[in-house]
Amino acid sequence: MKNKKGIVVLVGAGPGDEGLITVKGKIWLERADVVVYDHLANRNLNQHARPDTEIIYAGKKSGQATLTQGEINSLLVDKALEGKIVVRLKGGDPFIFGRGGEEVQFLKKADIPFAIVPGVTSSIGVSAYAGIPLTHRDFASSLSIITGSLGENKKANEIKWDKVATYAGTLVFLMGARKLDLIVAQLIKHGKSPDTPIAVIQSGTTPQQKTWTGTLSNIEQVINKDVVSPPALTIIGEVVKLKNTVDWFEQLPLFGKTVVLTRPKDQSESLIDLLQEKGATPIIFPVVQDHPPVDWGQLDQALMNLSIYDGVFFSSGKGVQYFLNRLREKNLDIRELKGLEIYTHGTKANEALEALGIRVTPISNPSDAETLKKSMGKDKLAGFRYLLPRAAKAPQQLPGLLMELGAVVDTISVYQSLPNCPKDTNFFESFGLGEINVITFTSAETVNNFYKLTPKDLLPRLKESNIACIGPATANAAKLLGLKVRIVSEQCTIEGLVEAMELHYL
Which residues are catalytic? Predict the structure, then answer.
């Protein structure tokens, strides 16, 4: 029986910021058997695909194509004929100078099923991140999007410059970084006022975004010795005057900063969201992976004797997860916690328990025994017994303070963080090129494992890098290895870490 045909889905990846992919585009990536992606598609989007998904790069950079368009067309057909779901991930929108129409024609001719997921085109996305509305009731009521790619096989006269120059609305040129002088000259030659405002935006919606503004007559002088590199977008028209008012992205406190996250991805979601909200670009490079403890014996004994405890302290969402999973495996449930005081020392632990309807007492980061008593709402702790299910090598500050106050403390490992070697083989290349601004560490394990993974020739760069640590214990582990810890959060929380980074870059 002949194999059933697969499907090719053309998905717009947006202009650069990975958060600008559509919900539907993300769903198709999660379903994909094969992803064929372009140079301008953010490679982080490939992380939405399954671990077994085949990832194929088909980009074009500096005029050099990995695959010709004909080879890409044939690849899409061949993979679909194998019965696979093929996602063709394209920068911006597939149908805005993305050759999506050509690919669909080829698929149609080959009788291959296809679907289209539109993307945020760079003309819309980049202009918004640059703080330039493309239309405005007082400045422009129409918009024209024009290719600025005038290569050897394309001549300047293919564009009707006399019509373009007299156009009253906003002009947007895509892919025109290397042809700015020609574009400006042709517009002025055909009647466009030399005083017309113009903006050139490089690497829009990314931490590398850079904007130059001026007029047609002086923009080349404004740019001067700078080199405008692709991808770049040019906006011409009165709307450019609004940038000073609307500008927002380039004013974010961590704009332009690339931040490495060394903890597991499933523990980094809140940190990712906060960093992106502040204008930074996170790079996930997890050097540890969580695993069950070597032996469940201690926890099992504690679970069968929960009545001997006055309370339980949870310090991480992962600790909550492993604790409750083991509870279920022993044919028990959360009702076993009835009558116990439940304390949380960490945002994620608090969220995980409250989601289950468990009432908790949040404990702020205690600096001393008196602060801890106040957070717990107790005058004394002598004679009380507490269970602390936590990571195998968790900081000892909290149990130390509890014992200082006379409490009996049972610290039990419910999970362990083991070394992990990330799949991103390009990471240290980017690190070596100086493309990383901050490396974050959330535990001594993340520090030590990252150090071990760093190639010897890059250790000097690591020792000069901006290191950001949660809490003094992690900072001390980094300092012992000779790293310069410039950022330390006062609060051992994700929010505290991001706040410390903001203060550092004020």
Answer: 38, 60, 175
